[in-house]
């Protein structure tokens, strides 16, 4: 899993990433614990409510300070979280994750 | 013949097209299309590619006037213009709409976008619409810009009046054209060209640079409300306006499911604002998926906006629409 996360981190697109399993981070490349904690709390809360309200949303983006935290739902109630610079085109981040998502879900 | 170039940029409705029309001796080339976003609050048409005009300053000097489209989604045109058509321009004129809730947010954004371009050329900040919103005034701008480390010329202009826009040109080219009779040129322009009447608003007042330096107040200038503007915006299907306390002021979102989810998102943002303020301001939270409308929350100190939009709309467009809607709204 750590190797897969290594593929998520890509210069100019994704700075760091982690996997949220339930309410805990199982594996991470985040250097900033503060951002990791915010992402964990935010996406746990958001996707719990998505499940409760049955809205079928599977992706969330939170812009805070100069960073963008993105959460992508994976199978097995896991969330792939990544952090990018706020000025990075969000489409680039999404395309990059969509390409890698099948590997995480295999 | 000396040929000069000036590039005008700035947010939607800041007066770029009007300024170029005011000065141009030729029928300006513009690429207007019907507005399909938050700019509906101010006008029916917007520039989608570029504006171009020419001012014959004298028998031996000519000025080419270029204007960028204001909307961020057309930023590819900015790059195209900077690297090609106006790579040799003498100055960048940043038009700042004084009626925006936070004009300095626009200044920071455009200076960041044009940072490399400005290395080799002059910057003029030209404040427009001060007849509708006098604050912030000139002193306030100078003070704020000084705080941002920006030392440049700030002029208050009325883009509809040729002699007013000519002051901007004079600031750029007076030293390069020492023999030019600027007063005569101004008189010629005013004599042969009536003030350009903008489609969105008409006002006969002259530009105002107010004397006090109080912080800006939030005011509504359009008959179109924030909710109406949101609903006139391409792809938006519902909106929720929230106050400083993050309580709902108004909503037209029909789906209870979407309403509940947006409130959840607002609650999350409100909680994060209190607990992790040290990480910086929360700009927005967006939730999307292939089978559901995109939900987004945009946050400012004095208000917040929740939007439901079609899932096909790109997130970049959703983001710009939310930010623009808040820039022209009051509580």
TrEMBL record, chain A:
It comes from the Bacteria. This is Roadblock/LAMTOR2 domain-containing protein.
Automatic annotation (TrEMBL), chain B:
It holds the Pfam family ATP_bind_1. The keyword Hydrolase applies. Keywords: GTP-binding, Hydrolase, Nucleotide-binding, Receptor. Gene3D superfamilies: P-loop containing nucleotide triphosphate hydrolases. The keyword Nucleotide-binding applies. GO terms for molecular function: GTP binding; hydrolase activity. Signal peptide: none annotated. Belongs to the GPN-loop GTPase family. This is Signal recognition particle receptor subunit beta.
């Amino acid at each position: 899993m750590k190797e897969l996360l290594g593929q998520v981190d890509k210069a100019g697109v994704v700075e760091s990433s982690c996997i949220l399993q339930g309410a805990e981070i199982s594996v991470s490349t985040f250097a900033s614990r503060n951002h990791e904690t915010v992402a964990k709390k935010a996406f746990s809360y958001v996707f719990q409510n998505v499940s409760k309200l049955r809205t079928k949303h599977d992706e969330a983006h939170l812009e805070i300070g100069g960073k963008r935290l993105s959460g992508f739902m994976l199978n097995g109630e896991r969330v792939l979280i990544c952090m990018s610079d706020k000025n990075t085109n969000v489409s680039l981040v999404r395309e990059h994750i969509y390409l890698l998502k099948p590997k995480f879900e295999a | 013949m000396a040929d000069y170039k000036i590039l005008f940029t700035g947010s939607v409705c800041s007066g770029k097209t009007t300024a170029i029309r005011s000065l141009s001796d030729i029928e300006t080339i513009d690429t207007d299309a019907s507005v399909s976003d938050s700019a509906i609050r101010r006008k029916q048409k917007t520039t989608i590619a570029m504006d171009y005009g020419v001012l014959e300053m004298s028998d031996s000097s000519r000025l080419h006037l270029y204007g960028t489209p204001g909307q961020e989604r057309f930023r590819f045109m900015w790059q195209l213009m900077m690297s090609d058509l106006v790579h040799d321009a003498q100055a960048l004129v940043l038009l700042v709409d004084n009626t925006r809730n936070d004009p300095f947010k626009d200044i920071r954004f455009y200076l960041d976008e044009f940072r490399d371009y400005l290395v080799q050329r002059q910057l003029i900040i030209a404040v427009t619409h001060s007849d509708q919103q006098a604050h912030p005034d000139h002193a306030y701008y100078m003070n704020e810009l000084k705080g941002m480390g920006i030392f440049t010329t700030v002029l208050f202009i009325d883009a509809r009046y040729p002699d007013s826009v000519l002051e901007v040109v004079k600031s750029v080219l007076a030293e390069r054209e020492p023999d030019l009779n600027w007063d005569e040129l101004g008189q010629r322009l005013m004599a042969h060209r009536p003030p350009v009447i903008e489609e969105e608003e008409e006002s006969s007042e002259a530009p105002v640079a107010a004397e006090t330096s109080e912080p800006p107040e939030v005011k509504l200038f359009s008959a179109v409300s924030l909710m109406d503007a949101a609903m006139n915006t391409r792809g938006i299907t519902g909106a929720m306006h929230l106050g400083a306390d993050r309580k709902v002021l108004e909503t037209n979102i029909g789906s209870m499911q979407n309403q509940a989810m947006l409130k959840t998102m607002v609650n999350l943002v409100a909680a994060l604002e209190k607990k992790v303020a040290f990480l910086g301001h929360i700009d927005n939270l967006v939730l999307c998926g292939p089978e559901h409308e995109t939900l987004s929350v945009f946050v400012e100190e004095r208000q917040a906006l929740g939007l439901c939009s079609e899932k096909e709309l790109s997130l970049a467009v959703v983001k710009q629409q939310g930010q623009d809607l808040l820039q022209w709204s009051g509580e």
